[in-house]
Design a protein that fits this description.
The protein is built from twelve helices and eleven strands. By secondary structure, the protein is α/β, with parallel strands linked by helices. It has a nine-stranded mixed sheet with strand order 3-2-1-4-5-6-11-9-10, with helices on both faces. The radius of gyration is 17 Å and the shape is globular. The protein starts with a strand and ends with a helix.
Length: about 290
């Protein structure tokens, strides 16, 4: 079976959907997961959560690297990792080298030019630094897939784009090719109740994810599959329809519009999801994670 090499950049541990996306990638036969990088806030705790999910299915071979904790210039950031409480009692490793995620990403991409898909499902801090340090990297990737932004929602802003708006603007202003973005306006259609999640997350790695999800369910009775949809588009792009053009990001220090995203319908590198086939997405997700 032909595999697609994937690098995952994630803020796992804030919203539960990062963990749900990682579970999918670990179970997808067509996914060659080359490594995981964490970003924003306590990147050590985020790395520990990613490791716990990998270990739940016996995967000790996947490199996990800590990235940038703070925003590049301004923005709200997100220092806390609430889902870490689900694994804290296991005393996980919290001593990884700091700030080596960008170098890992750069070296890995340069070793396999034209092959790798970069999946970004957190704030764009690591990726902005990567593109700034090595501007050739976007052209050495096969593709970029991102969960971020709002493209059909008026003045709304999405959290990944908003946390570090300077980084978001840097990424989308870089010379890139073949960048798919799926925004909040599309991912919000992929929802599931806490009751159904508990009934369907019945084997690993979803059992480990379910324990983390209980922290999320303390303040929400719904799980939205934002990041899993982005992950699925790597392998099943037909799950969505798209518009093409150039994504523009508003940014200015202290500007209330910072982090706002829009698609300009010109010749550009961006494909933005417009609609999603929700039943087909959920069929794909659970077929893969349950090994059907």
């Amino acid at each position: 079976m032909s595999q697609i090499p994937v690098l995952l950049d994630t803020d796992i541990g804030s919203d539960i959907d990062d963990a749900v996306a990682l579970a999918y990638l670990l179970k997808k036969p067509e996914c060659e997961l080359l490594g995981i990088t964490t970003v924003s806030g306590d990147v050590q705790e985020r790395a520990a959560l990613a490791e716990a999910i990998c270990l739940s299915v016996g995967r000790t071979d996947i490199p996990i690297h800590c990235g940038r904790r703070n925003v590049l210039v301004d923005g709200p950031g997100q220092p806390k990792v609430p889902q870490f409480e689900a694994i804290a009692h296991k005393h996980p490793r919290l001593d990884r080298p700091e700030n080596d995620a960008v170098w890992f990403l750069r070296d890995t991409i340069r070793k396999r030019p034209g092959e790798i898909t970069l999946l970004t499902i957190g704030p764009y801090s690591n990726i902005a630094i990567l593109f700034a340090l090595d501007p050739e990297i976007p052209y050495l990737l096969k593709s970029i897939v991102s969960m971020g932004g709002v493209f059909h929602g008026g003045d709304r802003k999405e959290w990944n784009a908003l946390v570090d708006p300077a980084a978001t603007a840097m990424v989308y202003s870089a010379y890139r090719r073949n960048h798919i973005s799926v925004g909040l306006d599309v991912t919000e259609q992929c929802k599931m109740s806490a009751h159904e999640v508990r009934s369907r997350f019945t084997d690993e790695p979803l059992l480990t994810v379910a324990a983390m999800a209980e922290t999320w369910f303390k303040h929400s009775e719904v799980m939205t599959f934002h990041d899993p949809l982005a992950a699925a588009l790597i392998f099943r792009p037909e799950l969505c329809t798209y518009e093409t053009g150039q994504v523009q990001v508003s940014y200015g220090v202290g500007d209330k519009d910072s982090g706002h995203t829009k698609l300009v319908p010109v010749d550009g590198p961006d494909k933005v999801a417009k609609t999603v086939d929700v039943p087909a997405f959920f069929e794909e997700y659970f077929r893969i994670v349950h090994g059907a």
